[in-house]
Amino acid sequence: MATQETSAQxxxxxxxxxxxxxxxxKALKAAKTAKEQVQPEVDKLLALKEQFKQLSLLxxxxxxxxxxxxxxxxxxxxxxxxxxxxxxxGIAGLYDYGPPGCALQNNILSLWRQHFILEEDMLExxxxxxxxxxxxxxxxxxxxxxxxxxxxxxxxxxFRADHLVKQVLGQRIEDDKKVQSGNAPKPAxxxxxxxxxxxxxxxEYELILETLDNYVGDELRKLIRRLDIRAPSTNNEVxxxxxxxxxxxxxxxxxxxxxxxxxxxxxxxxxxxxKRLYDYNTGQVPFASASVGKSFxxxxxxxQGLLRVREFTMAEIEHYVDPNGKKHSRFNEVRxxxxxxxxxxxxQAAAGPTRMSIxxxxxxxIINNETLGYFVARIYLFLTRxxxxxxxxxxxxxxxxxxxxxxxxxxxxxxESSYGWIECVGCxxxxxxxxxxxxxxxxxxxxVREALPEPLIEDKWTLEVNKKTFGPAFxxxxxxxxxxxxxxxxxxxxxxVKLQELKEQxxxxxxxxxxxxxxxxxxxxxxxxxxxxxxxxxSFIREYIPSVIEPSFGIGRILYQLLEHAYYRREGDDxxxxxxxxxxxxxxxxxxxxxxxxSGDFNPFIKQxxxxxxxxxxxxxxxxxxSSIGKRYARNDExxxxxxxxxxxxxVQDRTVTLRExxxxxxxxxxxxxxxxxxxDLVEEKTTWKEVEARFxxxxxxxx
Amino acid sequence: MATQETSAQxxxxxxxxxxxxxxxxKALKAAKTAKEQVQPEVDKLLALKEQFKQLSLLxxxxxxxxxxxxxxxxxxxxxxxxxxxxxxxGIAGLYDYGPPGCALQNNILSLWRQHFILEEDMLExxxxxxxxxxxxxxxxxxxxxxxxxxxxxxxxxxFRADHLVKQVLGQRIEDDKKVQSGNAPKPAxxxxxxxxxxxxxxxEYELILETLDNYVGDELRKLIRRLDIRAPSTNNEVxxxxxxxxxxxxxxxxxxxxxxxxxxxxxxxxxxxxKRLYDYNTGQVPFASASVGKSFxxxxxxxQGLLRVREFTMAEIEHYVDPNGKKHSRFNEVRxxxxxxxxxxxxQAAAGPTRMSIxxxxxxxIINNETLGYFVARIYLFLTRxxxxxxxxxxxxxxxxxxxxxxxxxxxxxxESSYGWIECVGCxxxxxxxxxxxxxxxxxxxxVREALPEPLIEDKWTLEVNKKTFGPAFxxxxxxxxxxxxxxxxxxxxxxVKLQELKEQxxxxxxxxxxxxxxxxxxxxxxxxxxxxxxxxxSFIREYIPSVIEPSFGIGRILYQLLEHAYYRREGDDxxxxxxxxxxxxxxxxxxxxxxxxSGDFNPFIKQxxxxxxxxxxxxxxxxxxSSIGKRYARNDExxxxxxxxxxxxxVQDRTVTLRExxxxxxxxxxxxxxxxxxxDLVEEKTTWKEVEARFxxxxxxxx
Lengths: 704, 704
Known about the structure:
Chains A, B: GO terms for molecular function: ATP binding; glycine-tRNA ligase activity; transferase activity. The first copy, chain A, is built from 24 helices and 30 strands.
């Protein structure tokens, strides 16, 4: 059952309910009903109004109320992050995190480690950013980790080819909309009047935009030429698209002859250490490795703030599992979790996401296997825990044409923001692709060895060298010929197809055939030198390259989307106030400590509070600047600080302080140790502000 | 008062005490004294024996008992760290951290954040590794961050020049020692017999080795030629030394025209963000920024494992302070801390370090100022807290010739290991060097503005343009001339020397002089166009570039030294066991959970324990492999796991489990919830194992 509901639809529903409830209240009041009877209905109305306000702030559809510019100015002003090297003019796609951004990221990562590594006994690794070329050749990155770029033939400005096509066609469709509705702007001097597009042209453009990923190589070049795609600001022609590798290249060591790259993902480091990790885990499978670190992509045109950058923090998990049994021992814990799944089939049918339990999804084959399902669920739980709005989170399956060739299933956690639905976590079944590639390249077996419950008996083609005749026949060249024979092995086992071919060649040549030794010379091999035959082989060990399930988190992207979800504006007495409603677990500062004025009498109390908070490892900040108490609260609402403890003149009398909560702006007043205990429980999520409000009387601040 | 005591002296003292105590016990036993009277003396003897054993393991002087090879093999086997890209042959100077190394590093960093950032409200930043060339030109790294290298003229092998000189002269001295003592080995075929060195030659070599840092440029070239320094393994001549820049270079963006480097330190990122940080801190000074991240140095010859690598984690603090008042508000908290200080004077006098209170050191001017002293103390406290042996930790002042030209004082925290005394933390007063350089380069004022208690009145040279005549005189060239005038400003204030020079030139030319405009053309300036005179200026704001005190931590170095300090061997029943005695706060795994056998009856208890530990965020590991319980304990001693909870058949009967401590190998036995509480208190350092042993009866394990 699909329950796709857009923000706009939700907003509409709440608005209708609000109007209806307003009528109820009006009617009661008109009938002069007793106040106690009217009040509950008034409360309902207020709740609906609040809900409406929140939804309108969140709404990001047409006529959006979400004001990105105002959030961005807040983020810059409070130094969540800022362009790197700003005083040197900045560099696109590089950002520095200031104190609140840093703390927010640290808190997200610390919860990530708790939620994944500690909870599942994952093996954390930290591998280097510098990576030699050979490794990234094997992984396919040297050849394939590239985007197409084109240049303005006159100015030399560079564009990512697909972005350019998207921009130009998008503009043409926009223009057409205006022309069709009679709102076309007057053409600038010297420019032609905008003409409407033919209906078939417009649908072709729309189709191309949907399937743009399919255009590569010469197809892309033809597309650019056929549609006459030009540089937008100059209208100059562009060059043919060429591949640009997205890895940063450097030289390792002083010789200048050892090429390396900055890693484009942390995954390869895990794979190269597979053997050590497997041993560390005393040979038990399944197990997972995990890593938090930087990755680098030399984007052609960085854009969208933190969403497409050149250097970013990733958190990656590689879970190694028997390809023949992708069950998960803790699957029961997530079986009943209902999540919004957007399957490939639903996308094909142009339907929306469906809310479904993970158990059902795996049972129906929508999610390929239990382990993948388990991680999809764990990712969902993590994201909602740190404050991502579940209403703007979905799990989208890759379409078969966008899936990497080695993957058998892939789900992205997509989060909606003012930039649309953005992939923030990928969860792919990478199968045995990487471990196989590195095994083949290095000869180092990245395998699991398992004692078989009973021996396996198989008939296999084998080759045996006749030691008596082989050495004397080739003398000092024996090694080169032996090398040729060894080349017919895969992972130390004979390649049976090649053995049979060789046997056939020998038969065809009446017991003789030419082969090329590893020294490049040609030798004659005769059938008295080797015996090729089918033998019955008994194995006691099963050896296999494990499959890898990879949940991969883009931390910067998650952080930005969280900022959008956390942001709202509150109308204040004088001006609109900006608030970030982080859950306490990720809030950069958990508690603000404010003396109401500059009196020295407050110092001992401030010290007592700060020491108490530090003892509980609660990040806090004293704001004893000269600003008004209201300004100081507002400043910390902007940082998303959930709680504030205020020391005032009453404190000096009776050792009580007030505790204010960010979103309700309500306060209570108690003795310092009681307040410290409450804050600790709130931060550790052992109680909620609602519970606190129920337990303690509200305090109406004098706000000096 | 110097209390320098070498490890060897300490060992000797303990040995003597041990022999003496042995005699006491022997005498008592010979006299058939009652057992209760002998026992305390026996205990004393055992304690001395243990102390002796520990000291001999630690001893790293001549005839060292510390076995580095065996520690290294343990670190590799248990995957603390391993060479990166090992299956591709590895790359010198790059290491990956495995699970225990990673956890150890995470714990060190988490304590670092607690000890510095949280405790002092520092502003954490995270800046990018990629850095554009312009920034590193200003900081001086493009020009000066380099080492001299030479090449073997035949093989092309590359050496760091100073390392090569050190190695060759060291070898000559070693050889001479052997010759002098008559132990010279017979010369290999075709090689000349080793000849003794002249006494003056040997002392010259020794002097050069001590002052090697002083040889740069042509001096270094002359030294290599004069002493005929050759490549050791080939005996070939080497090329003249050339400077090799140690930064990794790359291209940012697709144009191939934007040069960047991987940062060699995190400090520059702090400085570039100074203005935002200063604003974030609402203009209050002093304050500090802090950062944890990677830095990169393309070492010519990486060596000594983690001590000299190409990619490493740094934790850096930049503390901004008024150059005229380097007091510290929390100095009192460290004033009485006694630390081993090795001042420049003591080094000059070839004396040893002196134990002295921080207060005394600052008062006597040994440490330049309170802020520097405060951080030196905090660094000492941090290092000892994470488990660095205070007996092998000293604070060494830079000699005036090794100090950077901008620094007015610098202290290194040096830790002793089998590699000698190694700088692990630097604590420098960088003065205003970097902020001044970036201000000059970018025109962005990285300054503090302070309201003066009363206005400052000063006489200053100023220049004023005569607006009536200036414009008409130069017309469209006015801008170029104005540019020339502006070039006589520093930070928007007139350069008084230059103004006076210009005034003199005008006077010398009878009111006329030629100047060069910013367009490169020559113009005539006359004294009716500008007025240069001394004026009385009243300022209400003091503007200054703050001084920077920089504690800078090499995390990999600290981690390795900690591993050496934590390592010891315990003689077991069968074979020597390796132990890492980490304090619980840094131990990778805090608690091992072991079922005594594979019985399914144990599962609910294992689950209860693990869930309880997780709830308290205590990193734990279940080892239910088939190995004997002794083997499993041993395996976790190697990981430095301080506690082990064992579930056995008695658990099924009475819900009790045993708790074992790593170093004493003693156990107690209690109900599960009691044990969980004890473990929590131990890990959080709220109790000690000694206290636990005193409170609960010892349990003698059956070790099935």
